[in-house]
Amino acid sequence: MSLNAHGVSWHAGAGPVVDGVTLDVEPGQTLGLLGPNGSGKSSLLRLLAGVRRTSSGVVRLDERPLSAWPSRTLARRLATMGQHAQTDVDVTVADVVALGRVPHQGAWRPTSAADRAAVDAACAAAGIGHLRGRTWRTLSGGEQQRTQLARALAQEPTELLLDEPTNHLDISHQLELLALVRALPVTTVVALHDLNLAAQFCDSVAVLVEGRLRAHGPTTSVLTEALIAEVYDVRSVVGHDPATGRPWVRFLPPG
Ligand SMILES: Nc1ncnc2c1ncn2[C@@H]1O[C@H](COP(=O)(O)OP(=O)(O)OP(=O)(O)O)[C@@H](O)[C@H]1O
Questions:
Q1: pTM of the model
Q2: Nearest alpha carbon, ligand 1 atom 29
Q3: Where are the domains of the chain?
Q4: Domain 3-89+156-251 has CATH 3.40.50.300
């Protein structure tokens, strides 16, 4: 087992935002986190990353509660990529990517050859080598997103938690990013709105509705016309690609 949530809830305001979620993420797997707007995907990702404390229940990494991990060790293991990374400071792309190395560096240890190699590899993988000298604030939304991915990759994590990593990307970069993430020997949880991207790239999916886990399992079993109608109130046809066996979804007009 890699990451595991057991009976995890998080309350904000009047009621639970995440409500009793139990979920195992197998090592090396790419798990898609699906659900309508406001269903709790980002909140659950923050709980899985340990950046937010559960109101009840426990998140474990390798069967050990996150709270029992030394923070630096945890920071080396878990990398996150959020939806809205912003800064008012004039930092370069190279500076942002190098932040991924901080958990690996001691207070008095200078940047090592391993740090430089990890940053180079991450920039190459995310296709941002040519942007390294640019100021972060001058980047397009998609370029910022790929820079954040490079920062997360430079961290050389074993678990990667991505919140809608494709939302600013053109179709080519969407496919590239998810193919890259899927090929990594890393356990990944990725919140997605695009059901066809989930169908194509996720080994399994977890579907949240109003903070509760409505379904979890292999993508092929979970992504059905009935589930899509129930969760999103949209009619669809779900087929399977004969070459890959993977599902695809075609949405139908209301009526
Ligand atoms: N700090 C907070 N205080 C109060 N309510 C919150 C807080 N954070 C999130 N919420 C609410 O919890 C619900 C779930 O939010 P969350 O961002 O986790 O959903 P999501 O599934 O990621 O949504 P989206 O698909 O729109 O990004 C929303 O109704 C949101 O307004």
A1: 0.93
A2: 38
A3: 3-89+156-251
A4: yes
